[in-house]
Amino acid sequence: MRRNTEKPRGILKDHPEIASQIVDYLKGMRLVGQQINSSTIRTTIHGVIAVGAPELFDRVVGKDKDGQPIKFSVSKTFAKAFAQRHLGWTWRRTMGAARKLPKDWVVQGEEMAFRVAALCSMHSVPDYLVVNSDQTGVHMKPFSEQTYEVKGAKQVLSLGKEDKRQFTMLGSAAADGVLLPLQVVFQGKTGQVLPKNAAAVIATSEGWHLTHSANHWSTQETMRSFVQKVLHPYFEGKCFDLGLDPLTQ
Fold first, then answer.
1. How far is the CA of 58 from the CAs of 12, 55, 62, 186, in angstroms?
2. Is 144 left (phi over 0), alpha (psi -120 to 50) or beta?
3. 54 plus 136 within the same structural domain
4. Pair (137, 237) in one structural domain
5. In the chain, how many domains are there?
6. 69 and 143 share a domain?
7. C-alpha distances in angstroms, 74 versus 12, 36, 41, 84, 248?
8. Beta carbons within 8 Å of 245's beta carbon, 6+ residues apart
9. Residue 125 covered by a domain
10. For the chain, what is the largest distance between any 2 Cα atoms, rounded to a whole number of angstroms?
11. Domain of 30?
12. What are the distances in angstroms from CA 4 to CA 46, 82, 216, 220?
């Protein structure tokens, strides 16, 4: 993988060693197949500057609409420009087929929305009692179909595409915009598979419900647990706040 030898400009003009370190870190990650996205680049740049030249974050680079000074920060635009200028990278799709949506997916979504709206109108169901839930598999190691790579590269390899380890995330949101606690289903037959601090998370946070199943998929048992520990308490709490009888809603 080649490195663009162009001298750094702008905020890094007087710190070529910082630019060189950033390039080395990013290049090393790509050499082993690690996926690189804007967040990866921004985090790397921010970390190297924080260690080697933290004073740059106090540098005023402009003013906002109210005339207040704007200090330097590693923006997405800055990261993209750095990758293009110093590494010759561009946003590329990795090898492998992407999932396909049905041709009429927009129509299906609209029809579903109309059915929900009609039922709510017919039965006077308030927005806060309309909850949409969906499960999705989440890779232990985040993976994307795209990564930064040298422009014109014939092969865009990626580390981790073969890693199939996942957990299931069940997210729920009410029609009034409220996000319910997330249910996370880990793989395992006992509670030993949960994170070591799971008990503390469950006890102190209202934003998570941690559980498990033999293959990390949602099951009848995990869904019952979701209703008992997430959905039902949410409905009861909403009705209590508004002075309604939950048994009649």
1. 13, 5, 12, 43
2. beta
3. no
4. yes
5. 2
6. no
7. 12, 16, 9, 15, 53
8. 239
9. no
10. 71
11. 10-87
12. 20, 10, 45, 55
Is 150 a domain residue?
A: yes
- Boundary residue ending a domain (87, 118, 150): 87
Residue corresponding to tokens 């579903």:
112
Does any domain span residue 188?
yes
Domain assignment present for 105: no
pTM reported for the whole predicted model = 0.49
| CB 3, CB 38: distance < 8 Å | no
Same domain? For 50 and 142 the reply is no
Which two tokens mark 23?
Answer: 């390039």
Q: Which two tokens stand for residue 25?
A: 């870190």
**CA-wise closest residue to 229 among 249, 203, 247:** 203
pLDDT-derived band of residue 49, with 50, 70 and 90 as boundaries? very high
Nearest residue to 237 (alpha-carbon basis) of 131, 132, 142:
131
The pLDDT of 89-115, averaged and rounded, is 74
